[in-house]
Design goal:
Blueprint lengths: L4 E2 L2 H4 L19 E4 L5 E6 L7 E7 L9 E10 L2 E8 L2 E9 L2 E4 L8 E5 L1 H6 L2 H13 L2 H6 L3 H23 L4 E4 L6 H6 L2 H18 L1 H10 L2 E6 L4 E5 L2 E6 L6 H12 L1
Parallel strand pairs: 10-11, 11-13
Antiparallel strand pairs: 1-5, 2-3, 2-9, 3-4, 4-5, 5-6, 6-7, 7-8, 8-9, 12-13
């Protein structure tokens, strides 16, 4: 049974050391600093009463819109040994920090996948919670945090397109091709943009072709020669069609096994 409820922040979460993974057994100080790859740091400071089970997370060095912002989060126990630190980002629920299997990971806008973070005792000892609380009050008053939480379609689209470019770059490199890429954003509602990873939905055929190019020189030559442009739109069902040198991909939020679907079509059509 999945148990969901708000829990005491100070009693539940625990830490390891900068050389290991954070552990969920022993209690630890309330305010903490975690470190991750490429200079990433995250300071976590509880909000004072009357707030309960709420913390501020201030991220630095991530290269994302979260850097330098003291973002409020709710601490939510989703099951035994599992916690989510949840905020609202661009109008939707966003889990910035999660505890799973005794390890803490971060999810940040514009970064693909999770980033493992570990407790840093020296940075925690040097942390000044009052400074982060002051930053929070300032950003709350000047509208910075409200802007971050509100849905912004233009910013969301830009972020999704950036994530898509990572997939395109992998395809270009493996297939020695640079097809024109187009996403029909008019086919996506605000809810689609808000709730879905468009880079994943639209990029799966490109990632599938990347793997095909890496597996076979013949596939690499064929794909580079026949696919000169790629378009993606959202529909009710998945469809793929090669018209001339344009690969038209209609993805669907209800679709499953997108990569398998794309491979079966491509192996017949190319």
């Amino acid at each position: 049974m999945r148990i969901r409820g708000i829990v005491s922040f100070g009693c539940l979460w625990a830490v390891g050391s900068a050389a290991g993974v954070a552990r969920a057994e022993a209690p630890s100080p309330a305010s903490k600093v975690f470190v991750g790859p490429e200079g990433l740091t995250a300071a976590v400071v509880p909000l004072p009463p009357p707030a309960a089970n709420q913390v501020l997370i201030l991220v630095s060095g991530s290269g994302t819109v979260f850097d330098g912002k003291a973002v409020p989060h709710r601490v939510d126990a989703v099951d035994v040994g599992k916690m989510d630190f949840e905020t609202t980002y661009h109008g939707r629920a966003w889990n910035t920090l999660v505890l799973r299997g005794g390890a803490y990971s971060m999810y940040l806008p514009g970064r693909r996948g999770d980033l493992l973070v570990v407790f840093d005792d020296k940075r925690t000892a040097a942390l000044k919670p009052d400074a982060i609380l002051a930053t929070y009050q300032k950003q709350k008053n000047d509208g910075t945090l409200q802007t971050l939480a509100a849905f912004d379609r233009q910013a969301e689209v830009a972020q999704q397109e950036k994530a898509m470019q990572e997939i395109v770059a992998g395809f270009d490199k493996s297939c020695a091709a640079e097809p024109a890429i187009q996403i029909d954003w008019s086919s996506l509602s605000d809810a689609d943009v808000q709730e879905s990873s468009i880079a994943s939905y639209c990029g799966e055929p490109l990632d599938t072709m990347r793997r095909m190019c890496e597996e076979s020189k013949e596939a690499k030559t064929t794909i580079a020669g026949k696919v000169k442009s790629f378009s993606c739109s959202l529909g009710k069902t998945m469809q793929m069609e090669l018209t001339g040198s344009t690969l038209k991909w209609t993805t669907s939020r209800s679709g499953t096994n997108l990569g398998e679907f794309a491979r079966k079509y491509l192996e017949k059509a190319l």
